[in-house]
Amino acid sequence: MSPPSASVSIHVSAPPAVVYDLVTDIADMGEWNVECRGARWVGRVAQARPGARFRGRNSRGWRHWSTLCTVTAADPGRVFAYHVRAAGLLDVALWRFGITPTEAGCHVEQSTWDTRGPLMRVVGGIVTGVRDRAAHNEGNMRRTLEGLKRVAERRP
């Protein structure tokens, strides 16, 4: 796989299982995620496992959009990844949370790969108001991981 478009990491003083539960609790993701306001499972599968789908609700200022995501990896306490599409069929990105245990909690890395074609890059920039998605994602990912850390470290 090619290098990610953006990748950010942080140390979290919480067990890997707690972090994994947070990143796979898609309905409450908006509690700590900067751009995603939450999501809901689509179809019969309502848990993080490969092939499960969810519809994400996102916003940036007054702009709002939704995405259709398919889980590509779900390894409890280690990895949660998903493929994002817009309008149900246009490639947008791959997202991944990697969780590595440490003596005092875990190391969390959030990465994304921009999979949009040229037309979708233009349309996406108009819909979201973001022209440089990689730089924008990197800033959001830092704030998102800081939010994840805050929430995870408050959990028992």
Overview of this structure, please?
The chain has helices spanning 16-24, 118-128, 133-154; strands spanning 6-12, 36-42, 53-60, 63-75, 79-86, 90-102, 105-114. The chain is globular and about 45 Å long. It is α+β, with helices and mostly antiparallel strands and 156 residues long. It has a seven-stranded antiparallel sheet with strand order 1-7-6-5-4-3-2. The model has no long low-confidence stretch (mean pLDDT 91). Helices cover 27% and strands 42% of the residues.
Task: Write a brief caption for the model.
The protein is 27% helix and 42% strand. By secondary structure, it is α+β, with helices and mostly antiparallel strands.
Continuous helix count: 3
Rounded mean pLDDT is 91
From the alpha carbons, calculate the radius of gyration and give it in angstroms: 15 Å
The global form is globular
List the strand order in the largest sheet. Answer: 1-7-6-5-4-3-2
Q: Can you count the beta strands?
A: 7
Please write the string of helix (H) and strand (E) elements. Answer: EHEEEEEEHH
The span between the termini is 36 Å
Note the beta-strand portion: 35-45%
Note poorly predicted spans: none
Percent range of helical residues: 25-40%
| Structural class label | alpha+beta
Main sheet record: 7 strands, antiparallel
Task: Quickly list its features.
alpha+beta; single chain; 27% helix; 156 residues; 7 strands
